[in-house]
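Sequence only, no structure available. Ideas?
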Amino acid sequence: MAQSKNIVYSNSFEIEELSAIEINLNFEELLVSQIYGSEITIEVGSNNLNKIPQIKTEEGVLKIESAFKQGSSQKGQTCCVYIYIPQDFNPQYIKLLSQTGNIQAQILKAVTAVCVQSAFGRIDVQACNTEFLEIKNSSGDSRVQKLLCDYFEFYSEKGIIFVELEKAPQAQSFIKNESGKTQLYYPNTADLFIDVKTPSETYIKQIGQNGPGIKILGSQKNSKVEIKEY
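Reply:
I predicted one. Tokens follow.
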């Protein structure tokens, strides 16, 4: 994350007027924090005032869009987007996309879905509460703690996937990590079975009686899976 804010933009939006959040960034860092209040506050720290993300609302959706297109040069550019979300705000969905920038969130909450995607950046979510969670990361590491959802899907090509469940999902869920390491932590009260299939490991771990399944898949020999109770 950016060390110095150097704030060049700041604005607030009433949560009563918003139903969703969509953020699409390029190299910019993204930091999501939880606050008290009735307004979402957005700050942008950058060394180039003329190249900060576009921020607007459209039909109840708060949208943040990078000023840099994919493949364009960001040499010498630094930028971090800080978004402060009130704890009582529960939008229909949250979608966070990034190419190379890191995404860090204190907590992500939404009614139907939270989707976080990165090509080369790191994804770090300290807590998440939603119906469906989707995490996609090509080569960066993905870490989600205190996950509370009905079902989830994680995808990675070669990064580390770390998942800490608050409780067992209510429907079939998936973790697909082509060649990286997968770490799954579940509470000792969980009721589920875990189906692991990689070139080096194939087994089913039964926990409880009739819980839904979590499929963990890997396609390369160096795919590793670690499952622990807490």
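Residues 82 and 144 are 19 Å apart (CA to CA).
Hope that gets you unstuck.
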